[in-house]
Amino acid sequence: MIKKIQGILLMSIIVILAACGDEEIKPVAIDEATDTCATCNMAVVDNQFATQIILKDGKSFIFDDIGCMYEWMESNEDKEVEAEFVRNYDDKEWVLADKATYVYNQSVKTPMAYNVISFNDSKEAEKYVAKHKDSTLMTAEELGDHSWERNHEMMKKMKEMNHGKGSDHSHSEDGEMEDSHSDGDM
Predict the structure, then answer these.
(1) Exposure string (b/e) for 120-133, b if CB count within 10 Å is 16 or more?
(2) Other Cβ atoms within 10 Å of 47 Cβ, number
(3) Which residue among 22, 85, 99, 111 is least enclosed by CB atoms within 10 Å?
(4) HSE on the CB side for 82, CA within 13 Å?
(5) pLDDT tens across 136-175, in order?
(6) Can you spell out the DSSP letters for 146-179?
């Protein structure tokens, strides 16, 4: 009888441990009032350009641009990363970075001018490329080999637009720069 009870207890413990091991890693919510990019220290807007990394110890890092996330990964290779998340460009849903499809286009305005956007569905990314001249389609693996150079001309225009007006800027759904203080073109 005691062996039977011990067997039931052992099976219960195994089932509980197995259930804990299947815990899905989820992205954390972005708090625009307090979150800053772990690389550039700019405020992070809860938009289609935000990304994040969750470490195996549970610590998370938020980024305002996918280029900032890759810059952080390059300088923190010793960290044990559990998951990387990017946003679907069309609806801002979180996507595991290794499952996303990416588009590079120098005319896409991203917060730090790395000009890379991400899509959950490769067909949507292909449609974007077909509609926007000079776009490059990339898989997650190809993105790892991407040269992360910022578009300095775009950065200069962003600085001119925000000069003397603080850093209060945001991006519209299509990646166009918006500034609540300016009517100027970007």
Answers:
(1) beeebbeebbeeee
(2) 19
(3) 22
(4) 13
(5) 999 999 998 998 988 888 888 877 887 655 444 444 444 4
(6) S-----HHHHHHHHHHHTTSTT-EEE-TTS-EEE
Query: Contacts by 151-156 with C-beta closer than 8 Å and gap 24+?
Result: 151/106, 151/113, 151/114, 151/115, 152/113, 154/106, 154/109, 154/113, 154/115, 155/112, 155/113
| Nearest by Cα to 80 from 57, 46, 62, 60 | 57
Is the pTM of the predicted complex or chain greater than 0.90?
Answer: no
At 178, phi and psi to the nearest 5?
-120, 145
